[in-house]
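Hi C.,

You asked whether I'd gotten around to modeling the 346-residue construct. I have! Everything is below, sequence then structure, no commentary in between.
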Amino acid sequence: MNEELRTDNATIATEQLAKHRAATGAVMTLLDLQRWFADELKRRPSTSTLAKARKAFLETLKAPDPKTDEMRAFERAFAAAIAPYRERAEAAERGEQDALKAADTAVASADQALLVAQQRFEVLLADAVKKADEAELMRKAAGEATERAIGSLSARLDTANQTLSQALSREATAEAQRDGALAEAINLRGRLEKALAETRRLIETHAEEMKAERARSDARETRASEQMSETTKHWAAHVTTLRTELSELTRKLAGAETALLAEKADHEKALVRARQESINAVSDEIKRLSDVLGGVNALYNTHLGSVRSQVEALNDAVLSLVQQIDAKTINLPEALQPPAADAAKK
């Protein structure tokens, strides 16, 4: 079965080679023959089978065929008939060679123009690179200025923070002093309340004795009305002393509170002033940085516009040159164009 299929493929290949030879005058290549089998017959015969069939077909083409006298006479007449056309073809070939030389000359001119354009582009590119380097240096200078401004701003912020910390520390000290004064006032108030309670207790304790003494010594009460008992004098003096101390403590507390409020107001003013100075310094630095960056952007945009215009001019020059090269036409000589009479005969 495989042998029959192989023979069938060889026969089909020989027939296809003959058909292609008769239609085109050329022998089908082995690759085209394989593609034809794959596309038309959906087969994949071995390369050796198709190569053998093609080789055999080529051998048949090389074999000399017997020619009759009539065929030879026809060949001579045919050669004499086509001699003028052959001369015209040779003249056309010479004209084509001349046209190719002219085309080579045009291409050389175009290459020269392209070389000049390339050199100009290199000069413009070098100029653009130089300007870009200058812009990069200016950008670096602006970056350094920005870093210095940021450092200065950081230093000012640190100073403001230190001032704020000191103000907060003084405020905390004043708070502590006020708390101490309040604690002392509370302690004195407790002592005063204890003294008043003791006074009331003593008065209640000696009330009965005083009544009894008053009842027993009604006669002496008039003479001793101006005299007070030692106990009463003692407690009266003690109450007076406590009242004096309470007044003094109240006065000190009021003075401490007034001083604390004044110190707090001063601290708040200093804090507000420090914050305002910090905000003003930050605003000034940001404004200065904005001005510097605006100048750098303007300079960069200026250089970028110059480079863009130069590149566009170069691009227009190259496009114009390409259009000029494409617009050149090659006029074929008359020898390449067949005469009208010969065309009519054909």
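If it helps when you're writing up: The chain has seven helices and no strands.

Thanks,
B.
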